[in-house]
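Hi R.,

As promised, here are both runs. First protein below:
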Amino acid sequence: MYFLDGLNPNEIGDFDVIEHAGQLHVFYLVLPTHDSVGHLVSDDGINWSQLPDAIRTGDPGDFDADQIWTMGVAGVGEGWIMLYTANQEHGLIQTTGLATSDDLIHWTKAEKNPVAQPDSRWYEAEQSGNYRMDWRDPQIVEHEGKYHSFLCARQNTGLLNHRGCAGYFTSNNGTDWEVQPPASTPGNCYDYECPSVFELDGRFYMVAIHGGHNRMTWRVADKIEGPYQRPYDDALLPGHNMSVRPCFWRGRVHLFHWNRGARDWGTRHASFACLSSPKIVRATDEDLVVESFDWAELHSGKVVEVTPDTASAPSCGDWRWEGDSLLGHASPGTGNWLTETEYEDFEICADLELDSPRGACEFGFVFRADETGDQALYARCVPGRYSAELVKQVYNRRNGPESLWRGRSVEQTFHFIPSPDGRYQMRLIAFGPNIEFNVNGRLLLSQLSMPRRQGRLGVFLEDGRGRFSNLSVVPLQTPKTNWNR
């Protein structure tokens, strides 16, 4: 995770990430000025250090004098190239610039710029009216000795609100680029932001922000140039998790993205955007599955098994131990089982077996809770609604007589498919404001929220019976963030 320091911490925009010599490098759009490409480096994908900006806007009259937007970076020979978005006329016209580097730190803009712009045979190539000519967010993929770049563009035919597409251009040397027909034409969005391609198990996957839908989606193709086809369920991540970029790291494809959280933990700013934790992606015959990555390097102590000897304080419902399994029954309403120990940053895992496939109406983890769980965060599955929810329960959001409000608010939702046998493997990561909830190896929730910094931890059921087993908790290192400024 990374929050930029400064007067306005909401300064990290869309980005690209690469691995080099065991380290991760992120190059990012600097907000709100759009006048430079920032640079971060990390050893573990969580804690980042800032390096000098890579490039800045040009002098008056230059092709990139207005603003610089999102970029893509790749290795070419012994050096590196960066394709970046150059804006003109207050962002209404966009072209692609090129910069090169020998060490990833010092960058030089190419003498002949821009190196790519929309071709009127396939794309909107002239700005008209009061909307911009999209040609931005390039990403670079090397495949079989050739360089492929994908970017946000617009087709030159069709309904104006449905022309968003993944533009495509190629190069044999990383310097000279040739525009090609679109690689993906969804036909149902006004733009298709930050399209990024990676290869997995012999197929090619494209992830992108679906403009107008505010969600991350994915497509699949047999060839890198496409065409990329829409799967039946094309949702990649829950809302507020955007601008996904892939990176092959530690032997697996990881997805990096930013996340945006509302002001709910005492900051003077309206919202925070941060570089979120990486996620692991795997492919099945019909699906692309995302889950939290391996947090073991961030563990700050040993895994603690929750057993009948664990000090606890069940607050409601009927709970009892049977061997090493915790049996719960709650009807009507909620049953909470909580540890007496309070936890701050942690990872918790548990297996749940319901009495029957429909043995409970809701279930999951309760955490950062008071002594009863009346004020807490809940990561819950609601099988009857095919939904997962991050729910916050507090007494008063603003601590004053003008806001005598109590109850629950749903911070995030995402769909999930209930298990046909009523068995679930659950995993929750709570790391500072970052909350991640995985069920049966799939990420269902990923959100920023911190109404409470620490609290009790446990499991819950609503209107049903279930058996929890293999309960374990491990503390995590304290995150290096600046949310309390």
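And here is the second one, sequence first, then its structure tokens:
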Amino acid sequence: MVKTAHDIIIKPVITEASMDALRNGKYTFRVMKTANKHEIKAAVERAFGVKVEKVNTVSVRGKTRRMGRYEGTTPAWKKAIVTLAKGSKTISFFDGMI
């Protein structure tokens, strides 16, 4: 099965830390758990038309949550921090957030 860019990139991560990283050209995305750095780089370049310099990934563990006397966990997920090349344009999705 061929993975498209929109299969690999699930959604952007909007937190205080990720918004501060935008000033340095770093964009944070929630990505498919099985995607590797090469696939993430290609997906971001295809989807947004930018040049990616570096990709860092973090596997985020699920947290334990309680609902009354029942206990469960939130699902684990993967986060990708994408650094754009110096001459590359910004990703237009994040333009109003800087």
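A quick note on the second one: Residues 5-64+73-86 form a domain with the Alpha-Beta Plaits fold (CATH 3.30.70.330). Let me know what you think.

Best,
J.
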